[in-house]
Amino acid sequence: MNLHHFIKVAATVCATLFVWSAQAQSFPHKPVTLMVPYPAGGVSDVIARTLNVTLAKHLGQPVLVENLGGASGAIAAQKVLNAPADGHLIFQGGPNELILAPMANAAVKYKSEEFRLVQMIAINPMAVLARKDLPVNNGDELVAFAKKSASTGTPMTYASVGPGSMYHLLGEHMSKLTGVDMTHVPYKGGAPAQQDLMAGLVDIFMTPFGKSHGQLVDEGKLKVVGVLSSERQEMFKKAPTFNESKALKGFVFEMWSGYFVRKDTPEAVVQALHKALSEVAQDPAVRAALEAQAMIVPRPQALLAMNKVYADNIARYRGIAQSMNLQPQ
């Protein structure tokens, strides 16, 4: 490299660093938007609207909520990637949208690694709900029932919110682990899946749960076979974890939501967002509101820990997808 070229490269690098530094120091210099990849009224929307006002106080700018559904959350995710990497557009989501969507949907062109996890905000424990008359009460009984059903030529059915969704992946994973065929019944969302479950048209549905599910179980309209968390859940005190069973030991999964930015967002901006989101996650009113919805608010973690959480999730779900030979549709 000649001296002239070296000086030119050095000048370009310095100019870029100066712009990044200036951006970081002035961040945020306009309203910040939380991009929610589902319509208003759903669980994701509730999370965003529970904390946007508190986050605004910590950032010193209004925090707006934008709902943009479609393609398992991929349309909203792509909009974040198409926007400037300046931290003013933040994606709220998790593995379903950023890890599974690119593996399951051929129309999704982004890679999971194009995003960076800034902070987690909520963990949604999952349960296996069943039609009210399914004769099983734990993981081992469920596997025994599935084996018996498969042997008679009418495999047990499980609902999902679409091919390639977390719900579909877990059903296929359970089938693979136990060596038992089950029939996948995809729906366009959780509500229609739940309606058919209550009508007895499908056997089970693995789903995050909230107050409304607890009520339906109490009323005898649905049954809870077990929970997928590592510990038993307050809402379903009598329901065992699948981890307690012999057939499904280690079958521990949960849905979680976090805040993501483009990978190339300046470090100082990421740190400012991380600080503000960590403070919001420790706000008593925010925590109480989310916990009232049966969510767990995890203790805020350092950025390095967030990098590891996201990388581990990518590796885990890609491994499951490869084992079931998931092909983009």
Draw up the topology in text:
Blueprint: H1 3-26, E1 32-36, H2 43-59, E2 63-67, H3 74-82, E3 89-93, H4 95-104, E4 115-131, H5 139-151, E5 156-160, H6 166-178, E6 182-186, H7 190-198, E7 204-208, H8 211-218, E8 222-227, E9 254-262, H9 267-281, H10 284-291, H11 303-323
Parallel strand pairs: 1-2, 1-3, 5-6, 5-7
Antiparallel strand pairs: 3-9, 4-7, 4-8, 4-9
- Taking pLDDT < 50 over at least 5 consecutive residues as the criterion, the unreliable ranges are none
What is the H-and-E element order?
A: HEHEHEHEHEHEHEHEEHHH
- Give the name of the CATH architecture of the largest domain: 3-Layer(aba) Sandwich
CATH topology of the largest domain: D-Maltodextrin-Binding Protein, domain 2
Q: Please, how many domains?
A: 2
> Which class do the helix and strand fractions yield?
alpha/beta
Characterization of the model:
This protein has helices at 3-26, 43-59, 74-82, 95-104, 139-151, 166-178, 190-198, 211-218, 267-281, 284-291, 303-323, and strands spanning 32-36, 63-67, 89-93, 115-131, 156-160, 182-186, 204-208, 222-227, 254-262. α1 runs parallel beside α9. The model has no long low-confidence stretch (mean pLDDT 91). It folds into 2 domains: 28-124 and 257-323, Bordetella uptake gene, domain 1 (D-Maltodextrin-Binding Protein, domain 2), CATH 3.40.190.150; 125-244, Periplasmic binding protein-like II (D-Maltodextrin-Binding Protein, domain 2). It has 329 residues and is an alpha/beta fold. Helix content is 45%, strand content 19%. Strands 1, 2, 3, 4, 5, 6, 7, 8 and 9 form a 9-stranded mixed sheet that branches. β5 (156-160), α6 and β6 form a beta-alpha-beta unit.
